[in-house]
Amino acid sequence: MKITALVVLKPSAGGAGGSSSSGGQGSEALVLANATDVSHFGFFQRGAAREFIVFVARTVAQRTQPGQRQSVQHEEYKVHSHNRNGLCVVAFMDDHYPVRSAFSLLNKVLDEYQKAFGDAWKAATADSTQEWPFLMEALTKFQDPAEADKLTKIQRDLDETKIILHKTIENVLQRGERLDSLVEKSSDLSAASQFISKLQRALSFSLHIV
Amino acid sequence: PNSQFLFFEFSWYFFELNVHIGGWSTQVLQILFPISSLYNASYFHTRLIVTVIVLCRKMVLSTNFNLSHLKDELRLCALILSYSPKNESTWSHRRWVIKNLAQHLQDMPELIDKESLLVKDMAEKSKMNYRAWRHRCWLIPYMKTKQVLDELNKSKKWAELHVADNCSFHYRRSLLLALLDGAANREDSLICQSEAYLMWKEELRWNETLIRRYQGRESLWNHRRFLSQWWVQHLLSCEETSLSNESLADLFLSQEIHLLSDCLGAPGDEFGETRVQVELAALYILWISEQDAAVKGKVEERLKSVGSLKEVLARACPEKSRLWTHLLHC
């Protein structure tokens, strides 16, 4: 079982990003904490992989409403997202990681973040560069879903709330938004990564060409 | 880019070995390398080159035998496999080398340990690598009972974290069968036997934990079929000699039906996994009931509390109702 990334974000209150009428960049979620494990990618692809993860995390988090849980199938990952009162956690897991266990873990991350940083995130206006060691430890510790299952305190909550499933990332976007235009506008993706993204779409290659 | 690295390493390696092995295989390669670089070393070419190299080396080594050369061969194979983990000729070359080494080495267990570890690394990098796992299964006859038990313990965690990879469960099945073989044929057969029963029971318990945790995983249910089949036969044969009124086979089958009804009762989920789980569970019960007339009767008796198999299958997968009708009438 693999957890590739755990990202904590603050979605912008202004609503989902998209082209505003003045043509400027729509608001996107801010990254508060980030832990990724891209060791299974080829050496030269790791930088691009990290950029994509941040981009996808921002896009999905911004489009997860408070109180909502959703899962998106994106290439060989399932991207799980949970927004609790404006604080959002996004996890990138492989296809076999049980969904319930994933959301148990997301809950735990949210609890721990509030314990560690309180409400300081509410005032954030830019990406945070603060290190949070717990996140990287969680990435390793919860590779085994059995560990996540032990966090059963919130099992009751999970059974009551529905999890929205999207088959592709395009389904998460608002009406009228297109992934290509978001990629272009994103400051997360270097020119090289944007080029790769276009190429991928054109040739339907998978990201790891080993 | 990867292929170019590979060729560079090869050239260097063969340059070094030229002194030991003899010139002609190197000359063959010296002709091949420029040709393949003309074609820009596609994946197909890499495979072709590797196959030829391996054949050459085999020919040369059979005439020019040396223990340290054999160990070099293992290193070369590991190098090739790191680029091309499913290359069959490399795996088979590795087996040829080990067979030769086995005649001369005292410390086979250590060699086997290293091989197992290599396969595990390969399997981590390239999932569902049937050839790598088959290589690991090939090592089993060289293992003594203690190593078989060790391997079962060591490979357990990996299998647990890669439940979609059927190859690792197939390896476990081969290990368990080796334990049974040992129980039949060896001087310490009584110890072997009791170990086998303990491992089997533990494997069944562990498999059930995984089935409950990972919904709808076919490889887990397949593994359970294998385990149940032997276990039920074993329990039935025990009953013939035992004096107690309790039928262990009945008890076991009741537990299996209980597993089925748990699967049936699970709440539906958005990803459709519960539904697949129900289908797999029902097919599993159908399968074990078909193994033996005695078992069939016992299963049908116990199914009454759940509903007939036909109903269960129809509920789980209504679009295959014609298939179920056909299967259940045979």
UniProtKB/TrEMBL annotation, chain A:
SUPFAM superfamilies: SNARE fusion complex, SNARE-like. It comes from Aegilops tauschii subsp. strangulata (Goatgrass). One of its GO terms (biological process) is endoplasmic reticulum to Golgi vesicle-mediated transport. Keywords: Coiled coil, Lipoprotein, Membrane, Methylation, Palmitate, Prenylation. The lineage of its organism: Eukaryota, Viridiplantae, Streptophyta, Embryophyta, Tracheophyta. Residues 7-136 form the Longin domain. Residues 150-210 form the V-SNARE coiled-coil homology domain. This is VAMP-like protein YKT61. GO terms for cellular component: Golgi apparatus; membrane. It is found in: Endomembrane system. InterPro entries: Longin-like_dom_sf, Longin_dom, Synaptobrevin-like, V_SNARE_CC. It comes from the Eukaryota. Belongs to the synaptobrevin family. CDD domains: Longin (cd14824). Its main location: membrane. It is a lipid-anchor. GO terms for molecular function: SNAP receptor activity.
TrEMBL record, chain B:
The keyword Transferase applies. One of its GO terms (molecular function) is protein farnesyltransferase activity. InterPro entries: Prenyl_trans_a (IPR002088). It comes from the Eukaryota. Keywords: Prenyltransferase, Repeat, Transferase. PROSITE patterns: PFTA. One of its GO terms (cellular component) is CAAX-protein geranylgeranyltransferase complex. Belongs to the protein prenyltransferase subunit alpha family. This is Protein prenyltransferase alpha subunit repeat containing 1. It comes from Aegilops tauschii subsp. strangulata (Goatgrass).
